[in-house]
Amino acid sequence: ERAIAADPQLDRAGEDADYRIVQESLSNAVRHGQPRVIRITIADETDEVQICIEDDGGGLQQPVPPGMSLGRVGLTGMEERLRALGGRLMIEETQELGVRVRALIPKVRKLEIA
C-alpha cells in the first residue's frame, strides 16, 4: 500500500535519501519480518518530508536502544544519510507486532532576497 505526495520539494541529496530509506526498509521488512502488508507513506509537511514505512511482520529481532543502530549496516546507513541532511530516523514496533520506520527530511529552503 502506498500514499505518496506529488512533489515533496527535496533537493537531490534528499531525494536520494528518500529513495534509499524506502528501499532499505522494504528489503528489511521482507527479509526479516515476512509481512503480509507493507505501507509506504511520503507526506509533504510544512518544513519537512515525512517518510513512513510500516509492516505487519514479526517485529524487531532485538530491542532498539536509545540512539539506535541495531548493529546493521543498512539501518546505520539510513541514520547517517539523514543526520547529514539534518533529518531524523525513528524505528519502533507497532501494536500489530510489525515495524514502523519514520524518517523526517528537512525541505530545501529557498533564499529570500532582502
Element order: H for helix, E for strand: EHEEHEE
Content of β-strand: 25-35%
If you compute it from the alpha carbons, what radius of gyration comes out, rounded to the nearest whole angstrom? 15 Å
Largest sheet: 5 strands, mixed
* Straight-line N-to-C gap: 44 Å
Quaternary organisation: single chain
* Number of separate helices: 2
By helix and strand content, what is the structural category? alpha+beta
Low-confidence stretches: none
**Strands ordered across the widest β-sheet:** 1-2-3-5-4
Mean pLDDT: 83
Estimated helix fraction: 25-40%
What global shape is seen? globular
Number of β-strand runs: 5
Description of the structure:
The protein has helices spanning 12-33, 73-85, and strands spanning 2-4, 38-44, 48-55, 88-93, 99-106. With 114 residues, it is an alpha+beta fold. Helices cover 31% and strands 28% of the residues. Helix 1 runs antiparallel to helix 2. The radius of gyration is 15 Å and the shape is globular. A hairpin with a 3-residue loop joins strand 2 (38-44) and strand 3. Strands 1-2-3-5-4 form a five-stranded mixed β-sheet, with helices on one face. The mean pLDDT is 83. It has two helices and five strands.
Quick recap:
This protein has two helices and five strands; from the N terminus they run βαββαββ. With 114 residues, it is α+β, with helices and mostly antiparallel strands.
Task: Provide keyphrases for this structure.
single chain; 2 helices
